[in-house]
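Thread amino acids onto this structure.
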């Protein structure tokens, strides 16, 4: 306030000094005096602003009228032309002052904007992306306070429902205020409280809100900081997700390798057990041995061998090491081969097969595609009554060979259908009543996807289930 008073005093004294100089020391015409006063006023406007220049203009007009326009020594004007000259002088002085002051304000605004851009660039330079969203947000909030000179800053991150603060523990911005600010569209500022808040958005997606306290930048800069934190958080989240995905992938590869190794180690002694028990069951001199126990050993060895085979298949699928030997195969080959492998489980059950004689061949890995059909038939045998019919079909749909197995079992509940092909999933009603590992359908899905095809189920509780797999047509055939 004291500096402003001094500026006014110097401005007025400058005008008085010019008038006094021309009045006592230099004898010049009134035009020269007017131009000199106008230059002084322009200088005052350029140096200090509109208020000082306007006050100097008024004093200059009064002094010019009193000392240089006839009648001299009176605030009256004799010649009407002098009235015009005086009015022109006053308008010119005030207009020039306003233009100069406007240019000054614009220059100050440009300088302030340049300074804010430098601070924003410094904020960008200070940020370092990490693999943690929380750590990135904490560093960002601290950097904003440090670089922009704010008293405090707070950021509400909506996906985590968490508030990150930097500065005094007690601030005028509560968690509720930040949650409300996240829902608005524009920057809100309260200069009296020294608080500015802006929503943090990435496009149309709301991420939260940012509040600054104390020494506030412009509203445009607050919005720019909020936009920058949105981009920074999104980059940090992408890095974090990529790190997690890579860790999960490495974990799956390690787990698959471990399961593969373990399954092979199990199959080695199982092969010896199977060979020994088969020899004993077929040997004539084994008549005195308890045959029932030998059958139990034989069945147990078969069961363990199947389990090991499923573990190895699952491990290879998850590790992406399922290599296909594709060639033209017929649906009849796949179905008959699967039924032959399930001869013991079928126990003479009737299975209806509906395969058109002119059905074109599919392009598939014979062994793996047959495994899919085998899993379908095995499921139908497990989950349907012994006297219930089972139907195996094959045909062409939408340019694909589609093989299906339908049963008349209890069906699959609607909420369980999306999970039926997940690894280790067992239906609620059959979780403890039916034998199995829960890997069969997951293996079938992996095989179908390795062929670039799909697998699906259609079912209604109480009316059975039908499982389908599609296979590509062999080259040269049209649907």
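Threaded sequence (479 positions):
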């Amino acid at each position: 306030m004291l500096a402003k008073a001094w500026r006014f005093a110097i401005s007025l004294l400058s005008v008085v000094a010019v008038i006094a100089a021309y009045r006592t020391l230099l004898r010049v015409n009134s035009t020269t005096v007017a131009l000199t006063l106008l230059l002084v006023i322009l200088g005052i406007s350029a140096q200090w602003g509109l208020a000082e220049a306007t006050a100097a203009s008024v004093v200059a007009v009064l002094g010019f009228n009193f000392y240089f326009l006839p009648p001299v020594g009176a605030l009256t004007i004799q010649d009407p032309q002098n009235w015009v000259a005086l009015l022109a002088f006053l308008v010119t002085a005030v207009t020039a002052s306003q233009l100069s002051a406007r240019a000054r304000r614009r220059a100050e605004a440009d300088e302030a904007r340049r300074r804010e851009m430098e601070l924003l660039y410094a904020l960008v330079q200070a940020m370092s992306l990490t693999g943690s969203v929380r750590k990135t947000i904490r560093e960002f909030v601290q950097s904003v306070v440090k670089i922009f000179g704010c008293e405090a800053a707070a950021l509400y991150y909506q996906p985590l429902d968490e508030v990150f603060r930097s500065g005094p523990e007690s601030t005028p911005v509560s968690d509720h205020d930040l949650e409300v600010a996240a829902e608005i569209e524009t920057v809100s500022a309260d200069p009296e409280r020294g608080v500015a808040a802006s929503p943090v958005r990435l496009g149309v997606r709301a991420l939260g809100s940012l509040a600054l306290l104390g020494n506030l930048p412009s509203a445009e800069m607050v919005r720019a900081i909020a936009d920058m934190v949105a981009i920074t958080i999104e980059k940090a989240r992408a890095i974090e997700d990529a790190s997690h995905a890579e860790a999960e992938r490495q974990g799956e590869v390690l787990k698959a390798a471990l399961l593969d190794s373990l399954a092979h180690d199990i199959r080695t002694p199982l092969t010896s057990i199977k060979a020994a028990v088969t020899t004993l069951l077929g040997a004539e001199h084994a008549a005195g041995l308890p045959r029932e126990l030998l059958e139990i050993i034989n069945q147990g060895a078969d069961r363990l061998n199947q389990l090991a085979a499923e573990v190895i298949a699952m491990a290879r699928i998850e590790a992406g090491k399922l290599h296909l030997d594709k060639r033209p195969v017929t649906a009849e080959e796949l179905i008959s081969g699967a039924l032959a492998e399930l001869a013991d489980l079928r126990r003479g059950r009737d299975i209806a097969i509906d395969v058109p004689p002119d059905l074109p061949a599919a392009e598939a890995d014979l062994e793996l595609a047959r495994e899919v059909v085998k899993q379908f038939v095995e499921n139908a045998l497990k989950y349907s009554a012994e006297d219930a019919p089972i139907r195996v079909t094959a045909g062409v749909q939408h340019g694909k060979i589609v093989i299906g197995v339908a049963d008349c079992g209890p069906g699959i509940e609607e909420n369980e259908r999306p999970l039926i092909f997940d690894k280790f999933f067992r239906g609620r009603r059959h979780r403890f009543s039916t034998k199995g590992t829960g890997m069969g359908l997951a293996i079938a899905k992996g095989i179908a996807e390795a062929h670039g095809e799909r697998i699906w189920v259609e079912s209604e509780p109480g009316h059975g289930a039908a499982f389908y797999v599609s296979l590509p047509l062999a080259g040269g055939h049209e649907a």
